[in-house]
Write a structure and sequence with these properties.
The protein has 283 residues and is mostly beta strands. Helices cover 11% and strands 49% of the residues. The protein has one domain: Beta Barrel (Porin). It contains two helices and 13 strands. Strands 1-2-3-5-6-7-8-9-10-11-12-13 form a twelve-stranded antiparallel β-barrel. Strand 9 and strand 10 form a beta hairpin. The radius of gyration is 18 Å and the shape is globular.
Length: 283
Protein backbone atom coordinates (compact mmCIF):
# COMPACT_ATOMS: atom_id res chain seq x y z
CA UNK A 1 0.00 0.00 0.00
CA UNK A 2 1.54 3.27 -1.10
CA UNK A 3 0.87 5.07 2.17
CA UNK A 4 3.07 2.59 4.04
CA UNK A 5 6.03 2.36 1.67
CA UNK A 6 9.17 2.28 3.82
CA UNK A 7 11.43 4.57 1.82
CA UNK A 8 13.18 7.77 2.69
CA UNK A 9 11.08 10.64 1.29
CA UNK A 10 13.75 11.86 -1.11
CA UNK A 11 14.44 8.33 -2.35
CA UNK A 12 10.81 7.77 -3.33
CA UNK A 13 10.45 11.22 -4.87
CA UNK A 14 13.63 10.80 -6.85
CA UNK A 15 12.38 7.48 -8.21
CA UNK A 16 9.11 9.03 -9.42
CA UNK A 17 10.92 11.99 -10.91
CA UNK A 18 13.38 9.86 -12.85
CA UNK A 19 10.48 7.72 -14.08
CA UNK A 20 8.85 10.69 -15.80
CA UNK A 21 11.97 12.39 -17.11
CA UNK A 22 13.45 9.05 -18.22
CA UNK A 23 10.28 8.20 -20.11
CA UNK A 24 10.43 11.56 -21.85
CA UNK A 25 14.00 10.86 -22.93
CA UNK A 26 13.05 7.51 -24.41
CA UNK A 27 10.17 9.07 -26.32
CA UNK A 28 12.41 11.80 -27.70
CA UNK A 29 14.79 9.13 -29.00
CA UNK A 30 12.38 6.43 -30.11
CA UNK A 31 8.91 8.02 -30.22
CA UNK A 32 6.81 7.30 -33.28
CA UNK A 33 6.15 10.20 -35.62
CA UNK A 34 2.71 11.42 -36.51
CA UNK A 35 1.23 11.11 -33.01
CA UNK A 36 -0.87 13.86 -31.51
CA UNK A 37 -1.61 14.70 -27.92
CA UNK A 38 -5.13 13.27 -27.46
CA UNK A 39 -6.75 16.53 -26.36
CA UNK A 40 -6.59 19.81 -28.25
CA UNK A 41 -6.31 21.52 -24.86
CA UNK A 42 -3.24 21.88 -22.67
CA UNK A 43 -3.52 20.83 -19.01
CA UNK A 44 -0.21 22.08 -17.67
CA UNK A 45 0.85 24.55 -16.32
CA UNK A 46 -2.67 25.69 -15.44
CA UNK A 47 -4.46 25.25 -12.13
CA UNK A 48 -7.60 25.90 -14.20
CA UNK A 49 -8.91 22.63 -15.62
CA UNK A 50 -9.61 22.09 -19.34
CA UNK A 51 -12.60 20.24 -20.79
CA UNK A 52 -10.56 17.68 -22.70
CA UNK A 53 -10.10 14.02 -21.76
CA UNK A 54 -7.32 11.62 -22.70
CA UNK A 55 -9.46 9.32 -24.86
CA UNK A 56 -10.19 5.60 -24.72
CA UNK A 57 -7.14 3.48 -23.84
CA UNK A 58 -4.82 6.48 -23.80
CA UNK A 59 -2.26 6.65 -21.00
CA UNK A 60 -0.49 9.88 -20.11
CA UNK A 61 2.09 10.90 -17.52
CA UNK A 62 2.64 14.38 -16.12
CA UNK A 63 5.58 15.54 -13.98
CA UNK A 64 5.45 18.94 -12.30
CA UNK A 65 8.06 20.81 -10.26
CA UNK A 66 7.37 23.96 -8.24
CA UNK A 67 9.55 26.35 -6.27
CA UNK A 68 7.76 28.89 -4.07
CA UNK A 69 9.13 31.88 -2.16
CA UNK A 70 6.84 32.38 0.85
CA UNK A 71 7.90 35.46 2.79
CA UNK A 72 11.44 34.22 3.56
CA UNK A 73 10.34 30.57 3.69
CA UNK A 74 10.99 28.32 0.70
CA UNK A 75 9.13 25.25 -0.51
CA UNK A 76 9.70 22.79 -3.33
CA UNK A 77 7.20 20.23 -4.61
CA UNK A 78 7.31 17.40 -7.15
CA UNK A 79 4.01 15.97 -8.36
CA UNK A 80 3.63 12.84 -10.49
CA UNK A 81 0.26 12.38 -12.22
CA UNK A 82 -0.58 9.20 -14.16
CA UNK A 83 -3.70 9.56 -16.35
CA UNK A 84 -5.78 6.85 -18.02
CA UNK A 85 -8.65 7.32 -20.45
CA UNK A 86 -11.31 4.69 -19.79
CA UNK A 87 -13.70 5.82 -22.55
CA UNK A 88 -13.85 8.68 -25.03
CA UNK A 89 -15.67 10.72 -22.36
CA UNK A 90 -14.15 9.49 -19.07
CA UNK A 91 -10.64 9.57 -17.60
CA UNK A 92 -9.16 8.86 -14.17
CA UNK A 93 -5.93 10.17 -12.69
CA UNK A 94 -4.09 10.56 -9.39
CA UNK A 95 -1.76 13.23 -8.00
CA UNK A 96 1.21 11.95 -5.98
CA UNK A 97 2.81 15.10 -4.49
CA UNK A 98 6.01 15.25 -2.48
CA UNK A 99 7.02 18.37 -0.55
CA UNK A 100 10.34 19.80 0.61
CA UNK A 101 9.82 22.54 3.20
CA UNK A 102 12.70 24.95 3.88
CA UNK A 103 11.55 27.40 6.61
CA UNK A 104 13.69 30.37 7.57
CA UNK A 105 13.45 29.17 11.17
CA UNK A 106 13.06 25.57 12.28
CA UNK A 107 13.87 22.20 10.74
CA UNK A 108 13.64 21.22 7.10
CA UNK A 109 10.85 18.77 6.29
CA UNK A 110 10.58 16.29 3.41
CA UNK A 111 7.87 13.77 2.67
CA UNK A 112 4.78 12.71 0.79
CA UNK A 113 1.87 15.11 0.86
CA UNK A 114 -1.86 14.35 0.55
CA UNK A 115 -2.71 12.21 -2.51
CA UNK A 116 -5.71 13.05 -4.72
CA UNK A 117 -7.85 10.82 -6.95
CA UNK A 118 -9.47 12.63 -9.89
CA UNK A 119 -12.19 11.73 -12.39
CA UNK A 120 -13.10 13.84 -15.43
CA UNK A 121 -16.35 13.21 -17.30
CA UNK A 122 -16.95 15.10 -20.53
CA UNK A 123 -20.63 16.04 -20.73
CA UNK A 124 -20.43 16.97 -24.40
CA UNK A 125 -17.57 17.77 -26.81
CA UNK A 126 -16.90 21.13 -28.41
CA UNK A 127 -19.00 22.12 -31.44
CA UNK A 128 -18.87 25.09 -33.79
CA UNK A 129 -20.70 27.53 -31.52
CA UNK A 130 -20.78 25.50 -28.30
CA UNK A 131 -17.87 24.99 -25.87
CA UNK A 132 -16.94 21.57 -24.55
CA UNK A 133 -18.29 20.92 -21.04
CA UNK A 134 -16.92 18.65 -18.34
CA UNK A 135 -17.42 17.68 -14.69
CA UNK A 136 -14.35 17.15 -12.53
CA UNK A 137 -14.47 15.35 -9.17
CA UNK A 138 -11.46 15.34 -6.84
CA UNK A 139 -11.11 13.30 -3.64
CA UNK A 140 -8.14 14.31 -1.47
CA UNK A 141 -6.94 11.76 1.07
CA UNK A 142 -5.31 12.36 4.45
CA UNK A 143 -2.04 10.45 4.10
CA UNK A 144 0.31 13.43 4.59
CA UNK A 145 1.83 14.05 8.03
CA UNK A 146 -0.23 16.91 9.45
CA UNK A 147 2.18 17.59 12.32
CA UNK A 148 5.01 18.22 9.84
CA UNK A 149 2.90 20.43 7.57
CA UNK A 150 2.63 17.78 4.84
CA UNK A 151 -1.13 17.21 5.06
CA UNK A 152 -4.42 18.53 6.38
CA UNK A 153 -5.26 15.45 8.46
CA UNK A 154 -8.65 15.09 6.76
CA UNK A 155 -10.35 14.24 3.46
CA UNK A 156 -11.72 16.81 0.98
CA UNK A 157 -14.03 16.55 -2.05
CA UNK A 158 -14.13 19.00 -4.98
CA UNK A 159 -16.83 19.37 -7.65
CA UNK A 160 -15.80 21.58 -10.58
CA UNK A 161 -17.68 22.53 -13.75
CA UNK A 162 -15.43 23.16 -16.77
CA UNK A 163 -15.91 24.69 -20.23
CA UNK A 164 -13.35 25.07 -23.05
CA UNK A 165 -13.59 26.72 -26.47
CA UNK A 166 -11.10 27.01 -29.33
CA UNK A 167 -11.31 30.15 -31.51
CA UNK A 168 -8.69 29.87 -34.25
CA UNK A 169 -5.31 30.08 -32.46
CA UNK A 170 -6.85 31.02 -29.10
CA UNK A 171 -8.25 28.52 -26.58
CA UNK A 172 -10.14 29.68 -23.48
CA UNK A 173 -11.03 27.65 -20.37
CA UNK A 174 -13.43 28.53 -17.55
CA UNK A 175 -13.93 26.86 -14.15
CA UNK A 176 -16.45 27.20 -11.33
CA UNK A 177 -16.70 24.80 -8.42
CA UNK A 178 -16.97 24.11 -4.72
CA UNK A 179 -14.82 22.14 -2.28
CA UNK A 180 -16.15 20.34 0.78
CA UNK A 181 -13.31 20.42 3.30
CA UNK A 182 -13.02 17.96 6.15
CA UNK A 183 -12.51 19.85 9.42
CA UNK A 184 -12.38 17.02 11.96
CA UNK A 185 -8.70 17.76 12.64
CA UNK A 186 -8.69 21.54 12.25
CA UNK A 187 -11.76 23.75 12.71
CA UNK A 188 -9.95 26.60 10.92
CA UNK A 189 -10.38 24.75 7.61
CA UNK A 190 -13.47 25.80 5.68
CA UNK A 191 -15.30 24.86 2.49
CA UNK A 192 -14.26 27.10 -0.39
CA UNK A 193 -15.23 28.30 -3.85
CA UNK A 194 -13.11 27.52 -6.91
CA UNK A 195 -12.97 29.83 -9.93
CA UNK A 196 -10.62 30.34 -12.83
CA UNK A 197 -10.18 31.59 -16.38
CA UNK A 198 -7.22 30.54 -18.52
CA UNK A 199 -6.20 31.03 -22.13
CA UNK A 200 -3.52 29.73 -24.45
CA UNK A 201 -2.49 31.24 -27.77
CA UNK A 202 -0.71 29.27 -30.48
CA UNK A 203 2.38 31.17 -31.64
CA UNK A 204 3.64 28.39 -33.92
CA UNK A 205 3.38 24.63 -34.38
CA UNK A 206 5.55 24.17 -31.26
CA UNK A 207 5.08 27.24 -29.06
CA UNK A 208 2.09 28.48 -27.08
CA UNK A 209 1.84 31.35 -24.61
CA UNK A 210 -0.38 30.76 -21.57
CA UNK A 211 -2.14 33.09 -19.15
CA UNK A 212 -4.43 32.48 -16.18
CA UNK A 213 -6.39 34.06 -13.34
CA UNK A 214 -7.30 31.38 -10.79
CA UNK A 215 -8.61 31.57 -7.25
CA UNK A 216 -9.79 29.57 -4.26
CA UNK A 217 -11.75 31.47 -1.61
CA UNK A 218 -11.31 29.97 1.85
CA UNK A 219 -8.71 28.56 4.25
CA UNK A 220 -7.51 25.07 3.33
CA UNK A 221 -4.45 22.90 2.78
CA UNK A 222 -2.45 22.92 -0.48
CA UNK A 223 -0.25 20.01 -1.51
CA UNK A 224 1.70 22.08 -4.07
CA UNK A 225 4.55 24.38 -3.11
CA UNK A 226 2.58 27.50 -4.07
CA UNK A 227 -0.64 28.03 -2.11
CA UNK A 228 -3.86 28.89 -3.94
CA UNK A 229 -4.88 32.41 -2.94
CA UNK A 230 -8.07 34.29 -3.74
CA UNK A 231 -6.29 35.48 -6.87
CA UNK A 232 -3.44 33.67 -8.62
CA UNK A 233 -2.20 35.25 -11.88
CA UNK A 234 0.02 33.04 -14.06
CA UNK A 235 1.99 33.57 -17.26
CA UNK A 236 3.93 30.89 -19.06
CA UNK A 237 4.99 29.06 -22.21
CA UNK A 238 4.54 25.53 -23.54
CA UNK A 239 6.82 23.85 -26.08
CA UNK A 240 5.85 20.79 -28.14
CA UNK A 241 9.15 18.89 -28.19
CA UNK A 242 7.62 16.07 -30.23
CA UNK A 243 4.04 15.05 -31.04
CA UNK A 244 3.85 13.16 -27.74
CA UNK A 245 6.06 15.22 -25.38
CA UNK A 246 5.13 18.70 -24.12
CA UNK A 247 7.25 20.93 -21.85
CA UNK A 248 5.98 23.89 -19.83
CA UNK A 249 7.45 26.76 -17.82
CA UNK A 250 5.48 29.39 -15.90
CA UNK A 251 5.54 32.04 -13.17
CA UNK A 252 2.68 32.32 -10.67
CA UNK A 253 1.89 34.89 -7.97
CA UNK A 254 -0.39 34.57 -4.95
CA UNK A 255 -2.36 37.68 -3.98
CA UNK A 256 -5.13 38.96 -1.67
CA UNK A 257 -4.72 36.48 1.19
CA UNK A 258 -4.11 37.78 4.70
CA UNK A 259 -0.56 36.51 4.32
CA UNK A 260 2.03 38.45 2.31
CA UNK A 261 2.13 37.81 -1.45
CA UNK A 262 4.15 34.85 -2.67
CA UNK A 263 5.55 33.85 -6.02
CA UNK A 264 6.43 30.54 -7.62
CA UNK A 265 8.23 29.11 -10.63
CA UNK A 266 6.62 26.07 -12.25
CA UNK A 267 8.09 23.61 -14.76
CA UNK A 268 6.93 20.27 -16.06
CA UNK A 269 6.37 17.81 -18.85
CA UNK A 270 3.43 15.87 -20.27
CA UNK A 271 3.89 12.57 -22.12
CA UNK A 272 1.36 10.61 -24.17
CA UNK A 273 1.67 6.83 -24.52
CA UNK A 274 -1.44 6.53 -26.68
CA UNK A 275 0.22 4.54 -29.49
CA UNK A 276 0.84 1.58 -27.16
CA UNK A 277 -2.67 1.47 -25.70
CA UNK A 278 -4.36 1.86 -29.08
CA UNK A 279 -2.43 -1.10 -30.47
CA UNK A 280 -3.38 -3.21 -27.46
CA UNK A 281 -7.05 -2.24 -27.81
CA UNK A 282 -7.18 -3.29 -31.47
CA UNK A 283 -6.02 -6.84 -30.73
Amino acid sequence: MILNIKLRPWSGVRSLGWLGWGAAGLFLLFGEGGLEMPSGYAGRPFATEDAGVAGRWVFQLEEGIQYADKNQDEEFSLTTTPILGLTDRLEVSADFPASFLRPEEGKNVEGWSDISLITKTQIFPEKEFIPAALLKIVVKFANGNEAKGLGSGDEDVQLVGVVSKMIKNLTVHGNAGYAFVGDDKDEALRDYLIYGVASEYKLSDRWKVAGELYGEKGGHFDADASNHHRLNPLVGLTFQVSPNVLLDLAWRAGLTNNEKPEQAVIAGLSISFDHFWKKKAKR
